[in-house]
Amino acid sequence: MLRLMLLRHAQAERGRAGERDFERRLDDRGRRDAPQIGAYMHDEDLLPNAAVVSPAMRTRETWELVAKALKKDGLGTEFDERLYDATPEDILGAIRDTRSNVGALVVIGHNPGLHELATWLVGSGDREAAERLREGLPTSGLVVIEFTARTWKGVGARAGRLERFVTPKWLSAAG
Question: Which residues of 103-131 are buried (b: 16+ CB within 10 A; e: fewer)?
Fold first, then answer.
């Protein structure tokens, strides 16, 4: 069983004049939400063996805050250029290139590609979560999908079971 965790970066500042989108940093809300999602992942034993992260500043900062909250040493992290301004196919390519000894992978990226990929991969699972996911993938949204494939190369359309979809707002409402 493979576990894929798709995490949209936390809330970022609006772009400033002369600043490239790639350089946008997290805002105050983002700096609160990322550790909250990381703590949730830790508490729910959603611990990745590896991370593939967009090299944009806001995704790097998100991963730094999440990883600290996970309290897990030895996580292999790859910053992959394919994840910035990515299509679902670009993201899937990065996932399929993951080593076969990685059973739980977190991918931190951007919309719309991340949201489109999540809805494309899900074929079964939590129906209520799937309905919420179809509405959108907000910042700091975490999608957990499980696959029966033996390697990441076997991950494809409608092959995944949606295990859960959580957001900081949903976590706050759930208490």
Answer: ebbbbbbbbebbbbbbbbbbeebbeebbe
Instruction: Domain count for the chain, please give it.
Output: 1
Report how far apart, in Å, the C-alpha atoms of 124 and of each of 48, 65, 127, 163 are. Answer: 22, 31, 8, 9
Element housing 104 (H / E)? strand 104-109
Instruction: Enumerate residues 6+ apart whose C-beta is below 8 A from 37.
Output: 7, 10, 66, 69, 140, 142, 166, 168, 171
Convert the pLDDT of each residue in 81-124 to its tens digit: 999 999 999 999 999 999 999 999 999 999 999 999 999 999 99
Report yes or no on whether pTM surpasses 0.85: yes
Q: Do 38 and 28 meet the contact criterion of CB atoms below 8 Å apart?
A: no
Give the per-residue pLDDT at 117.
Answer: 98
Does 126 reside within a domain?
no
Output the CA torsion sign for 95, 99, 100, 105.
negative
Helices 57-70/28-43 angle, 10° precision = 40
> The dihedral of CA 122, 124, 126, 128: what is its sign?
positive
Domain that holds residue 86: 2-13+22-107+149-174
